[in-house]
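Following the same procedure, sequence and fold were stored together, as reproduced here:

>
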Amino acid sequence: MNAAVPQQRISAVLAQVATVISLSSSSLGLMRLDKRASVRSDAAHNAKQGTGKTSASRMAGAEDRVKQINEVAAEARAILNGITTEYDGDRLLANSLMHQWLASWRPLKTKYQALVAAFVADAPALIAEAELNKGGYDVETPTLEEIEKAFNLDFVMKQIPDSSTYAGAGMTAEINAEMQRRFEAATAAAYQNATKDALQRVAEPLDKLAAGSMSASRIKPTASRTRAACSATRSSAMCRISARCSARST
């Protein structure tokens, strides 16, 4: 009788085929609550004090410039979300899609930096203009230093750790083994949730397409339909990761 082949840990397999990635961005906050204007508004409307909240722009006249910068950040996030799947609060990116992400990222980052640099260069004039445009609203315009530090767009990548390599200092072998088991279970749960997220995202557009040619009552979530979804969407990040995980674990 052949001895059973030990199954490879999911954390070890994932570490070989995928990377955890997260995108971060920050921007200049434009709207601020004007307490005095809120009080006056409540009085003008014969309303109880505190009923209304009046906000005003801190950089009146520059909103479109900030919007353009934010749109680039939003585009980068949309692209990343489109080729990754949710993974424990971050995103799971198949290594085979890394080139695609970097090819999209570089021009967006360059455009983002150019827009920010132009905005910072024009900031002194924009601040002066905002002081005039805000009229009697009681909100402070941003300082040049605040504007210089406000914008950021970047991403970080983290390797998925192999739970079997964990070794806590000062721990007994029994406790260390339990920690490895818990880390492996957490990785497996995150992977399962990532798979569900990917399959749901693949199934939704297929449902919409199918609804145009047949009634919804005839569409059933079968295993064959799930396989067809992956076959029809080879660009699906989770399909690629799952295929590689299956190949490496056998």
Summary: The beta strands are 18-26, 31-33, 55-57, 84-87, 90-94, 152-158. Residues 2 and 250 are 15 Å apart (CA to CA). The longest helix spans residues 173-211. The chain has eight helices and six strands.
